[in-house]
Amino acid sequence: MTKNVLFVCATGIATSTAVAEKVIEFCKEYGVTFHYKQINVAAVPANWEQADLIISTTNVPYQVNTPIVNGLPLITGIGEEKVLNEILTILKEDK
Amino acid sequence: MASEIKIFKEAIHTHLNVNDKAELISILAKPLLEKNYVTAEFAEKVLEREEKFPTGLPLKKIGVAIPHTDPKYVLKNAISIGVLKKPLPFKVMASPEQSVNVEIIFLLALNDSEKHLEILQKLISLIQNEKALFQILNGSKDEIFHFIDRQLKGGESSYD
Q1: Is this model's pTM higher than 0.95 or not?
Q2: Could you tell me if A38 lies within 8 Å of chain B, comparing CB atoms?
Q3: Which residue of A15, A26, B86, B119 has the smallest Cβ count within 10 Å?
Q4: Which of A57, A58, A78 is the mutation pick for testing B, counting most B CBs within 10 A?
């Protein structure tokens, strides 16, 4: 089953755009594809239930049952590999 | 495609001496407002957004912040750049309990995610390049303008 990923940032258009692109490219290299949606943090309550993974560059101040990965390393470059591998592992897990 | 974001010399400020973020954002937003790239509320909305969703980036040697706000306050894509004389603390993106001393600010006026993707990617790789940041930190207005223009618009990846 193809998984669903939510890319979240404060506006839903700036850092989440850059992060989404990096994750898509990285996963593609490993043959992993997924459905995704880019949203702003206020839209998390209405969307998290359909998602298998949330990758956010902002603090998510809601209770959700979907794993959240901090996407900041994909912006700063510090610890980027580690986060990309963590994301890949989650997306490769059986649903 | 690559030319869909505007950088102009008037929107580059070096040796900025500011006391707080409000003063900083208002200085950086002014040229964007004067040239009709943003609405009158832009600066205030950036500041509000920064308090709730901070944009400080803790890089290895230089602190950078990329304040921005909702696209509805932006008329056309543009970037305003500020280099500070003395660092200003910003809260860290995604970890607001931490703070980072920021020396370079890229104020982003972005109104469309499809069109600015390429520029955003280039800006992120520039932020991750220490040598490039030092060039901005120590450059004159003209040098920074040509450097950023080349980095964001050109396809080259060399920072020499």
Answers
A1: no
A2: yes
A3: B86
A4: A58
